[in-house]
Amino acid sequence: MQNLLNTIKDQLETGKLNELSAMAADMHPADLAHAMESLTDQEKRDVFQALDPKTATEVVVELSEYSRDQVLEGLHPNKLAEIVDELPSDEATDIIAELPTDQAREVLSRLDEEDSDEVRALLIYDEDSAGGIMQLELVSILESQTASEAIEAIRIKREEVEDIHNLFVLDNQSRVVGMLPLSKLILADPLTRIRDIMEPCPLFIQADEDQEAVAHKFRRYDVVSAPVVDAKGRLMGRITIDDVMEIMQDEAQEDIARMAGISGEDEMFLSRDSFKMSRMRLPWLLVNLGGGLVSGWLLWHFKMRLADALFLLAFIPVIMAMAGNVGVQSATIVVRGFAVGQINMDNIRAILFKEIRVALIMGVVCGLTAGTVAFFWHHNPYLGLVVGLAMTSAISAASILGTLAPALFKLLNVDPAISSGPVVATLNDIMGLLIYFGISTIFYTLLVQ
Q1: Nearest CA to 316 among 439, 231, 211, 188?
Q2: Helical segments of 129-200, H only
Q3: How far is CA 144 from the centre of its chain?
Q4: Would strands 176-181 and 205-206 be described as parallel, antiparallel, or unpaired?
Q5: Which of 36, 202, 324, 326 is the most core-located residue (most Cβ within 10 A)?
Q6: pLDDT at residue number 201
Q7: Would you tell me how many other CB atoms lie within 10 Å of the CB of residue 376?
Q8: Residues near 213 by Cβ (< 8 Å), separated by ≥ 6?
Q9: Which of 41, 3, 14 lies closest to 27 in space, CA to CA?
Q10: How many Å apart are CA 114 and CA 271, to the nearest integer?
Q11: How many whole angstroms separate alpha carbon 247 and alpha carbon 12?
């Protein structure tokens, strides 16, 4: 990798752009894109400008969203139109959608009428919907046709359609009535009617469905491609497994970023705009700051009692830390469960009771351990009791909060990943302090006697 980067940088510095272009043409597009991610923004643009149109088309879809924006910035409309013209309709639409309005309009005007109409048709759909990720390139066949006619249809569209997994079988009204796997078609007698060898279509996608719901359906039905249909069941396009894999990766990255209280955008890793990155991260840090100030106020509020029982201070960090960790664990489990479709509002009660049972077991074990340490450390049995009860109660409460918070966000149609990380951790810190000081107050006279 480092040798490749050094070679690319050397060719850029010495102006050997023809050599760079030839080397890039012989590389796998994913390898070149991976190397380009480590270059500066200007170096990325220089490399991309040196690529021939075919290589540029293959590389641009492998780049991260941030790097793609950088290499397309300022690119001549003619070259950009050449790249878009060679891409499948869904990927061409993604690129056009990311361009400024004037540049997108100019590129569309340079495409041939059919390609331009296809892109315009897909642009009306939300980028996170099934319509936003579907391809218009596909092979369909009437149920009354024969296997030999189906194979001829594939030959006709061989240059247009990539990765043919299934042929979609239609009736006379263009409604999807089944599907025919390519392997089954190859083995069929040439004169066999399609209706006699087709299989039921296990999955139909509506164009306005959320892409995450589409990914869950692909996982459930274990399919490699599925038709997108309108309200009458007429074929509109297709979604393939590679699109779904990208969705799952993007959603997972977005959830992880949001659990940390930051944006899921590529700019978080690649952007050199410090002010932009700060704006993305500050809001949730301010949530933590607010929670920390509330915790500080609680400590100040109980200062008089702490003055006579300073040994209570020694156990504040461990109780807050344990409660915070358990809360984040529970929230992570629930957020992930929602993301992969294993948890929903129908079974959240069972998940909650399970988490409470687990939390009680962990709380009792940790509470007994912390209470025993407190007793032998300060030779005060009531301190051991207070610490043990507080630890058990704080862990149990944190688990309940960590389970319910994502469910509440889900019910409010807010991404449940937002509820993890900063929100749960901050609330658990406050709740842990309240529980600890509340139990300490109950046993205060026994503690200081």
Answers
A1: 439
A2: 130-133, 147-156, 182-187, 194-197
A3: 42
A4: unpaired
A5: 326
A6: 92
A7: 10
A8: none
A9: 3
A10: 36
A11: 35
- In this predicted structure, what is the pLDDT of residue 276? 64
Domains and CATH numbers, the chain: 2-133 (1.25.60.10), 140-240 (3.10.580.10), 273-448 (1.10.357.20)
- Compute the distance between CA of residue 9 and CA of residue 68 in angstroms, rounded to an integer: 19
Q: How many C-alpha atoms does 342 have within 13 Å on its Cβ side?
A: 7
Contact 339, 255 (CB under 8 A): yes
Residue linked to tokens 């019910």: 411
Instruction: Report the distance separating Cα 401 and Cα 419, nearest Å.
Output: 10
317 Cβ contact partners less than 8 Å away, ≥ 6 residues apart:
none
Q: What is the per-residue DSSP string for 400-412? A: HHHHHHHHHHHHT
d(CA 117, CA 121): 6
Which are the contacts of 394, defined by CB distance < 8 A and separation ≥ 6?
319, 320, 322, 323, 363, 428, 431, 432, 435, 436
CA distance 53 to 49: 9
Residues whose CB falls within 8 Å of the CB of residue 437, separated by 6 or more in sequence, listed in order: 298, 302, 305
- Characterize 419-444 residue by residue with b for buried, 16 or more Cβ atoms within 10 angstroms of its Cβ, and e for exposed: bbbbbbbbbbbbbbbebbbebbeeeb
Q: What strand order describes the sheet that includes 176-181?
A: 140-142, 166-170, 176-181
* Distance set, CA 30 to CA 24, 26, 69, 133 (Å): 11, 12, 17, 21
pLDDT digits (tens, 9 = 90+) for 199-234: 999 999 999 998 888 988 898 898 999 999 999 999
- 208: nearest Cα among 128, 290, 107: 128
pTM of this prediction?
0.65
- State pLDDT tens for residues 132-155: 889 999 999 999 999 999 999 999
CA distance 395 to 325: 9
- pLDDT over 90 (residue 92): no
> Count of CB atoms within 10 A of residue 111's CB?
19
Instruction: Give the count of beta carbons closer than 10 Å to the beta carbon of residue 361.
Output: 12
Q: Nearest-CA neighbor of 324 among 291, 293, 282?
A: 291
Cα-based distances in Å from 224 to 167, 220, 283: 12, 12, 40
C-alpha angle 250-252-254 in degrees, rounded to nearest 5: 65
Candidate from 14-28, 129-143, 362-376 with smallest mean pLDDT: 14-28
CA-CA distance, 436 to 391, in Å (whole number)? 8
